[in-house]
Amino acid sequence: MQIHKIVIPTPFYVGPVNVYLVRNDPLTLIDVGPNTEEAFSALRSGLEALGLRLDAIKRIIISHAHEDHYGLLARLQEHCGAEIYIHSWETNKLLHTHDYSDHRKLLQRAGVPKEAIDRFEQGYMRIHPPATDRFTFKTLEDEEDILFENGSLRVLHTPGHTPGSICLMRESNRELIAADTVIKHITPNPMLNPDPIDNYRRFPSLSEYLCSVARIKDISPTLIHSGHGGCIHDYAEHFHLLLKHTNERQAKLLSLIPKRGVTAWEMSELMFPGASGMHRYLAISEAQAHLDMAMADGRVLVEKRDECESYRLPV
Ligand SMILES: [Zn+2]
Ligand SMILES: [Zn+2]
Predict the structure, then answer these.
(1) How far is the CA of 232 from the centre of ligand 1 (A)?
(2) How far is the centre of ligand 1, averaged over its atoms, from the C-alpha of 124 (Å)?
(3) Which of the ligands is closest to the CA of residue 209?
(4) Ligand closest to CA 191
(5) Which of 32-41, 117-126, 211-220, 257-266 is predicted least confidently?
(6) Which ligand has the nearest atom to the CA of 181?
(7) What is the pLDDT of residue 101?
(8) Which pLDDT score, from 0 to 100, does residue 276 have?
(9) How far, in Å, CA of 5 to CA of 94, rounded?
(10) In Å, how far from its chain's centre is CA 288?
(11) In this structure, which topology does domain 3-312 adopt according to CATH?
(12) What is the spatial distance between Cα 79 and Cα 183, in angstroms, rounded to a whole number?
């Protein structure tokens, strides 16, 4: 059972995305890349370089429902008829592609002005693949084994970056395909998302993410394949740096909270001044995730102010 990386260009700020081919029966692709012509032809040539055709793909596993990882899915399934697998907490995004109402509510609660929410919605519509209710998929759950003729991959549900993010572990050597849950050169953003069980609640992305990375550390992976950039050989060191970075950011956030209180929108401006466009959206996600974690730890108090949430330090 061989795992091959294929690098696919994306039009997004994050740069190219890595998709993985598991060369065994059934021939399986993990993630597919964004919905662009360039990505489609890069995937086709990447497979051809391995002596394979696109229509030989029998199974596709999606690590999480972000456009750079699943955008080509509908086109690819039409092409090769592969079976699609994704965690049950990510399916909503695939099926209700153009419904932004849950995000709109979360952004309102974060204190984001209406004009900015409208801009985020327009940006989301521009990059999102067309509605995909024409394809079918099977859902994956934690600890499930994905079988191959010679080996298997175990599904690890690792919520945080998104609620239904998964990693896939090859148990024979503890090699891990981690997609955006572990990235060498950046700290994966705990994205603003509704809770998949209760849409009114916000998903506690940072706390969940820290549990997920601790679980990965306990596994002691020998090699980690990421969704972007190079692979990681020393996860213990990576984990240590991640915790240090998270603690420093949490301390910075606490030091920036003004006496009158602050919304996640205002905090994103204080923490990341000048961020615009998609970077501004990521800044709000980061600020909200840290505020939620501070609240869960009793370091800040929250109160409702004009339908949005304002955070202040306890007196
Ligand atoms: Zn992602
Ligand atoms: Zn990504």
Answers:
(1) 17
(2) 14
(3) 1
(4) 1
(5) 117-126
(6) 1
(7) 85
(8) 86
(9) 24
(10) 16
(11) Metallo-beta-lactamase; Chain A (3.60.15)
(12) 30
CA–centroid distance, 69 to ligand 2, in Å, is 6
Ligand nearest to the CA of 161: 1
pLDDT at residue 131, as a whole number: 57
Under the banding of pLDDT at 50, 70 and 90, the label for residue 126 is confident
CA of 225 to the centre of ligand 1 (A): 14
Residues 6 or more apart whose CB falls under 8 angstroms from that of 22 comprise 1, 2, 3, 28, 29, 30, 148, 153
Tokens of 253: 């956030």
Instruction: Tell me the CA distances in angstroms from 56 to 4, 30, 71, 179, one per residue in order.
Output: 15, 14, 19, 23
Tokens of 108: 């309102």
pTM score of the predicted model: 0.92
Compute, in angstroms, the gap from residue 12 CA to the centroid of ligand 2. Answer: 9
Domain boundaries defined on the chain: 3-312
What distance in angstroms lies between residue 295's CA and the mean position of ligand 1's atoms? 25
**Nearest ligand, CA 162:** 1
Distance 305 CA to ligand 2 centre (A): 34
Q: What is the mean pLDDT of residues 65-69?
A: 93
**CA 68 to centroid of ligand 2, rounded, Å:** 6
**For residues 178 and 227, is the Cβ–Cβ distance under 8 A?**
yes
Neighbours of 276 (CB within 10 A): 10
pLDDT at 129: 61
How far, in Å, from the CA of 115 to the mean position of ligand 1? Answer: 25
Ligand (nearest to CA of 66) = 1
User: How far is 304 from 29, CA to CA, in rounded Å?
Assistant: 46
pLDDT attached to residue 130 = 60
What is the pLDDT at residue 14? Answer: 86
pLDDT-based confidence at residue 291 (cuts at 50, 70, 90): very high
For a pLDDT cut of 90, what percent of the chain falls above it? 77
* pLDDT score for 12: 87
Looking at the chain, how many residues does it have?
315
Ligand 2 geometric centre to CA of 307 (Å): 32
Calculate how far, in angstroms, residue 215's C-alpha sits from the geometric centre of ligand 2. Answer: 21
